[in-house]
Amino acid sequence: MHSHSPFQGLNKCYASSLFLLCLSLFSSLLQGQNPYPAAAQSKSILILNGTAHLGNGQVIENAAIGFRNGKIDLVADATTIKLAANAYDTTISAVGKQIYPGFIAPNTTIGLIEIEAVRATVDDRETGAINPNVRALTTFNSDSKIIPTMRTNGVLMAQIAPHGGLLAGTSSVMEMDGWNWEDMAYRTDDGVYMSWPKQQSRTYTDDGPGPLMPNNDFSKQVVDLQKFFTDAKAYCQSEKNEEKNIRFEALRNIFNGTENLYIRADNVKEITESIDFANAYGIKNITLVGAMDSWMVTPLLKSNQVKVILGRVHSLPDKNDDAVDLPFRVPFLLHQAGIVYCLCQEGDQEYHQNRNLPFNAGTTAAYGLSKEEALSSITLNAAKILGIDKTTGSLEPGKDATLFISGGDALDMRTNQVQAAFIRGKKLDMNNEQKALYERYKKKYGQ
């Protein structure tokens, strides 16, 4: 005789419900999948009669932009050239449209953070204070749903940078299309990110920023950096070391000048101290990150050939007595002083907002810069700072065909409509989950 459990029917019901729930979640995941990575360019393409903004300050009305095998081979005025009827396999009419080089977002955590509240999806930092050997690209999530939303606004390349501690690790430049990080890596290990110790800091709560408090560990942190750099330089200068030190090895290209030392520093004192520190170790390629006070020390930056990745323009000034529009004007002040700079969008909790990078550039065009100068701050200037300007960052023959066509001004959030985009000649699928949701609920509410 078999006994009958009172929970037997309940268990069957539970199993059935669990199966349906899993099926529903799986279906939702399938619907929300990212577009497939694009195939390599197989046919030559000519974009004709659009307005081309080259990224180097030049504009061509009625332009002819041609590319084959992933490389640009024609940039010309369409009214002054003659082309054979079969010169290109495919012709795209861009009448009334704008053509731009792909925008480049530096200092991002794209692919390193997906959902900030879910710890398992946060991979932008390592434990410990000094980790220059940590490589950001090895934790890069090529399936991030944030990537397709960036491409929608023309951001086709990004530098992924680690955070945390004094020496956070090495950054890399990634293309925003590919099956995995190996496919998407454009320049691996382009530099090491360092955060200069702050003498004062403040905490933030739901009620707003708290008061500035002294950093009691400031002197110790500076000494720790000095000791590490001294030991690392001695190691790198030695012709023979008894054993390999991977943390010291990570600084080898910083000392020989082939990679950037990116220094996160904000106020004048931090900027001055960090530059003096880098000079003491003979480091030549220095780039400040954040650096909203950089406009106050432009002679120091210029004499040391220091480049700047400016923090988010759409922010409030850091000091109570600063003009409220100062963050909008800093790019013009640096440009006026002859400093090589670019813009980044990322600030605290802003990892998902890099798609708004072009609109930050658009704001600077209303505060002193011309539209083409503002464009350079997220194209060619960014490429120069990241060391990739020989192959990308502007529309020039011989460079990668990483570009897009917009129905309006790409620096204006009201008119920017990216209608086609290419990364090294590969035509991208411009769909993303947010567009899918828009179409879904547009139908639901009969719009």
Question: Can you summarize this structure?
Answer:
This protein has helices at 8-31, 146-151, 181-184, 218-237, 246-249, 252-255, 268-280, 298-303, 326-337, 357-364, 371-376, 380-386, 433-444; strands at residues 45-53, 59-68, 71-77, 90-93, 98-101, 103-108, 155-160, 167-175, 185-195, 200-201, 204-205, 208-209, 213-214, 260-265, 286-290, 307-310, 341-343, 403-406, 418-423, 426-427. With 447 residues, it is of the alpha/beta class.
Keywords:
globular; Urease, subunit C, domain 1; 8-stranded mixed beta sheet; 447 residues; TIM Barrel; alpha/beta; 2 domains
Write down the Rg.
25 Å
The CATH architecture classification of the largest domain is Alpha-Beta Barrel
Instruction: Work out the helicity level.
Output: 25-40%
Main sheet: strands, sense, barrel: 8 strands, mixed
The total of helices stands at: 13
What share of the residues does DSSP label as strand, in percent?
15-25%
Would you give an account of this structure?
- By secondary structure, this protein is α/β, with parallel strands linked by helices.
- The protein folds into 2 domains: 123 residues, Urease, subunit C, domain 1 (Roll), CATH 2.30.40.10; 289 residues, Metal-dependent hydrolases (TIM Barrel).
- 28% of the residues lie in helices and 23% in strands.
